[in-house]
Recover the amino acids of this structure.
């Protein structure tokens, strides 16, 4: 269908690589556990910026969330250079989200998306997201401190309240931006780090809160 | 020929289908032929199929399960029955049913009184409202998912997916939904 990106849309600027199936990794997620504490308290509106994963929907259904799923990486991959589809453009973000104007998200699941945005894109993302969130809204994000990251974002599957399954979608690698905590704070204006956890496998998990 | 009767089991049948109950209202005109007075009453297992070569422009309503393998541009309103959009099916409008299974494509909102299932081959661009939603991996979805019973459908859905652990005690709203089947 024309309204969907082609299946398995290739990585941005890493077309032509051969995709391989890699065994998924299960890792403890301290930020997810903290997030679940929050979403248990009331019915929340959740924006999932990753690809649609059935088990995540099933997991979140426990909490009666209203869930929006919008794969930002796929949307950015599908755009053609020069078509104006820049994150800094409010029209792009508005078209991408295509939600009612009064929609405000309580939780944004960014997963590892920040590792795949240029710094100016990340700043623009935060600016746009401020329009769709109220004070106290949370962003769940994971940032890698490895030298390289997969050429495409992981597909994250929630195993339970404390564990995430990392599913690689490609064997290809790309350099990691290795965003430092201070840089994250500087780029995501309007949000502050509520909690962060450096995990053994070289991933820093963040819960950012809208100020 | 628009409707094809079939007793074959549909490919997706997540749970046994109870006998259809009369609908409270049938707001939309239906292109389906009304049964003649002389016809025997339909058995609960009966279901209608819109074949792959059929294109319907207009709203659909009725009191039996429906499989759509053709194209429909108009609201599909079968509140008390199961609706399956087969792999060849294309619906451009809202789909309302008890259990809604999408193996083809829906460009519109899906309201399911009990459950909405998006199969691996399926695609939905629109919002899903159902007490329970299943998205199979590989399926394509763009929109929102609201896991509460649609208000316009009376709000009497089945027991929803049981919250685990302490989440249960904190969400009376979710636990209060009862099965009607």
């Amino acid at each position: 269908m024309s309204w969907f990106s082609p299946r398995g849309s290739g990585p941005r600027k890493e077309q032509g690589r051969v995709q391989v199936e890699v065994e998924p990794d299960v890792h403890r997620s301290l930020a997810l556990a903290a997030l679940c504490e929050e979403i248990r308290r009331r019915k929340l509106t959740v924006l999932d910026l990753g690809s649609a994963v059935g088990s995540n929907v099933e997991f979140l259904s426990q909490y009666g969330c209203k869930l929006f799923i919008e794969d930002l990486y796929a949307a950015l991959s599908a755009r053609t250079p020069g078509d104006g589809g820049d994150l800094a453009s409010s029209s792009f973000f508005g078209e991408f989200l295509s939600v009612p104007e009064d929609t405000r998200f309580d939780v944004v699941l960014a997963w590892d998306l920040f590792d795949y945005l240029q710094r100016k894109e990340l700043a623009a993302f935060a600016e746009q997201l401020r329009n769709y969130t109220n004070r106290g809204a949370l962003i769940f994000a994971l940032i890698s401190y490895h030298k390289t990251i997969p050429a495409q974002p992981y597909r994250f599957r929630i195993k339970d309240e404390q564990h995430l399954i990392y599913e690689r979608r490609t064997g290809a690698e790309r350099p990691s931006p290795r965003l430092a905590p201070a840089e994250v704070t500087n780029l995501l204006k309007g949000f502050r780090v509520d909690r962060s956890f450096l995990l053994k496998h070289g991933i820093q998990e963040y819960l950012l809160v809208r100020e | 020929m628009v409707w094809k009767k079939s007793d074959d089991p549909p490919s997706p049948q997540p749970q046994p289908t109870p006998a259809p109950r009369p609908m409270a209202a049938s707001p939309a005109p239906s292109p389906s032929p009304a049964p003649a007075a002389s016809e025997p009453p339909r058995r609960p297992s009966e279901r209608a199929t819109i074949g792959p070569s059929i294109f319907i422009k207009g709203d659909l309503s009725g009191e039996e399960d429906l499989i759509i393998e053709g194209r429909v541009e108009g609201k599909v309103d079968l509140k008390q029955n199961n609706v399956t959009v087969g792999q060849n099916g294309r619906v451009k409008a809202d789909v309302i049913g008890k259990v809604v299974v999408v193996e083809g494509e829906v460009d519109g909102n899906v309201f399911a009184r009990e459950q909405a299932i998006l199969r691996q081959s399926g695609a939905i661009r629109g919002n899903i409202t159902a007490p329970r939603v299943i998205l199979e991996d590989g399926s394509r979805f763009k929109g929102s998912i609201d896991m509460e019973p649609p208000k316009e459908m009376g709000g009497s859905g089945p027991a929803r997916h049981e919250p685990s652990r302490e989440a249960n005690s904190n969400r009376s709203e979710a636990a209060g939904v009862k099965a009607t089947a």
In short: The longest strand of chain B covers residues 110-118. The two ends of chain B are 33 Å apart (CA to CA). The CA atoms of residues 35 and 97 of chain B lie 21 Å apart. Chain B has one domain: 44-175.
